[in-house]
Amino acid sequence: MALNIADLFEHAVDAAPDNRALLVGERYISYGELEADANRLAHHLTAQGIGAGDHVGLYAKNSIEHVIALLAILKVRAVAVNVNYRYVAGELDYIFDNADLKGLVLDRTYAPLVAEVAPKHELLKTFVVLPDPLEPDDASDISAFGGVMIADAMAGQSSERDFGARSADDLHIIYTGGTTGFPKGVMWRHEDFWRVLGGGIDFMTGEPLSEFDQSEQAKQDGRMTTFPLSPLMHGGAQASLLMHLFAGHLTVLEPKFDPVRTWEIIDATGAQMMFMTGDAMARPLIEAFEAGNFSGQTLFAIASSAAVFSPSLKARWMEKFPNAIFTDSIGSSETGFQGTGLQDKSALSTDGPVVGIGPSTVVIGDDGTILDPATDVGKIGRTARGGNVPVGYYKDPEKSAKTFVEIDGTRYSIPGDFARLEEGNRMTLLGRGSNCINTGGEKVYPEEVEMAIKAHPGVYDSLVVGLPDEKWGQTVAAVVQPKEGGTVELEDLRTFLRDHLSGYKLPRVLTLVDEIPRNATGKAQYPKAKEMALAENIRLDDAGANA
Questions:
Q1: Alpha-carbon distance 133 to 128, whole Å?
Q2: I need a surface site. Which of 285, 311, 447, 507 has the fewest CB within 10 A?
Q3: More confident residue, 450 or 205
Q4: Ordered DSSP codes for 477-546
Q5: Which of 148, 163, 197 is at the close of a domain?
Q6: What's the CA gap between 150 and 44, in Å, rounded?
């Protein structure tokens, strides 16, 4: 046996084959049924020449078939490549080429785009087509690229698990969201991925698990119902799914985020754990809860990661769910989890998520040395993780050399996030260094300003960017989506923020927009926000600009 993702899933199957594994819509599938279908599709992939090390794209919304395909790819030691289903033709062309796809699993509704792009890629020969979970009657032509419906691909195939031995060194690739450039494929060894993203290390204690610890949980009574709200095309949601499959839990998936339906599902299933992506999900969810007639009180763990969950929203959630545990987790595709913090209503930070420093996580100062959490409290540096870290970026040795760095004999992943050391072996995440604004020599981290802005009663959502400024080098610009029917004035916003922020952090530029640019999971699209701010804005006079 190896510490391989496919093996870890199979351990859970062997431990409790009758446990319910997935719920999508009204359809349940057990661990044994999921295993059998994944084996059938895996045998089809083998017959098509897909094997160890081959790259197969997953271009699909959340569905049971999506999970079957993911597991099938892993079972034959191929590499599953997550493809953003919002991509247009040019972006698909890039990912097909960059990832060297040999196979593709796609929702049928995307067939016209695939028919346009696939012929440009000689390596890409195998296509498995899934019924679209939102458009089940879609009949798009799949013959142009030789697509086979998943039911036909599995028909007549063996449901037996008769695959060869796998390795902990097999690669698993997660493509980043590409919010600041082209997506990059982060290459993980299976064991390392499991350790830092799949529950192979206890996130709270830092203790490593052994191979069968999670599957042993599957035999116990009272398995949990978990509900990750994000699309599986993003690494965080995929990791959440796999972590709970390893332990025999029931995972609820939805093909499209709908706040009202989310509460209906929670009440119908008694879900205990919910995973969301910051304010972009937290705000519409709490508004739907407050406006509706839901209970939601089965939730005992409400977790946010990958985006800002602002204090003003947290307070509203905590008021409605006084018995739930709230956590902020920080990390990235390049590091896995770097820290998790339990949130207390009496001590919500206005600077950023405050988390305990996770196992193998360090903060690196400007001089390249590792800061001491005990003696360097208050200092700011880049977060990094040692231990189980990725191999590098696929086909990008230059970027790999910049991100994965050896310090004093230890290899660290340093994706560029900044944090401030706090008392009690904790840190406050300040944001991505590439987004840091330098105004008059002072550093401003956009996330801190965004959280303060979103506490304003007239603001629905906001992003903060730096714009060129002749006097200050850069100036702080706020892109704001007002609440429905409302408006926001620059001077009023600055007056409100003075109780929360230093003068140099106050925005001097305001752009009002109908909708803040975010991707499917709520992650900020800063380049687009900057375009909006440059195109149209309201500016403060130079007098008193940085006061």
A1: 15
A2: 311
A3: 450
A4: EEEEEEPTT----HHHHHHHHTTTS-GGGS-SEEEE-SS--B-TT--B-HHHHHHHHHHS-EE--STTTT
A5: 197
A6: 10
DSSP secondary structure code for residue 145 in this structure: G
- Tell me, what CATH number does 398's domain have? 2.30.38.10
Give, in order, the Cα–Cα distances in Å from 319 to each of 323, 344, 346, 386.
9, 11, 12, 38
One domain, residues 24 and 166: yes
Pair 413, 457 in one domain = no
Looking at 358-487, which runs of residues are DSSP E strands? 361-364, 380-385, 392-393, 404-407, 410-413, 417-422, 426-432, 437-439, 442-444, 459-469, 473-482
Whole-number pLDDT of residue 541: 62
Nearest to 400 by CA among 182, 175, 176, 186: 186
Distance CA 541, CA 232 (A): 46
Q: What are phi and psi of 141, to 5 degrees?
A: -65, 125
CB atoms within 10 A of CB 522: 24
> d(Cα 488, Cα 483) in Å, to the nearest integer?
9
CATH of the domain at 119: 3.40.50.980
Residue found by looking up tokens 């956590």 in the block: 327
Residue type, 403: T
Indicate whether 146 and 84 sit together in one domain.
yes
Q: Are residues 382 and 473 in the same domain?
A: no
Q: Which domain holds residue 519?
A: 436-539
- Using only C-alpha atoms, the chain has a radius of gyration, in whole angstroms, of 23
Lowest mean pLDDT among 291-295, 345-349, 450-454: 345-349
150 and 75 housed in the same domain: yes
Q: Which two tokens stand for residue 509?
A: 């530029």
| pTM given for the model | 0.86
Helix (H, G, I), strand (E, B) or coil at 370: strand
The pLDDT tens digits for 117-130 are: 999 999 999 999 99
Q: How far apart are the C-alpha atoms of 108 and 85, rounded to whole Å? A: 12
Q: Tell me if 538 sits within 8 A of 510, measured CB to CB.
A: yes
What is the identity of the amino acid at 54? D
Half-sphere exposure of 499 (CA within 13 A, CB side): 7
Residue at a domain's end among 177, 197, 217: 197
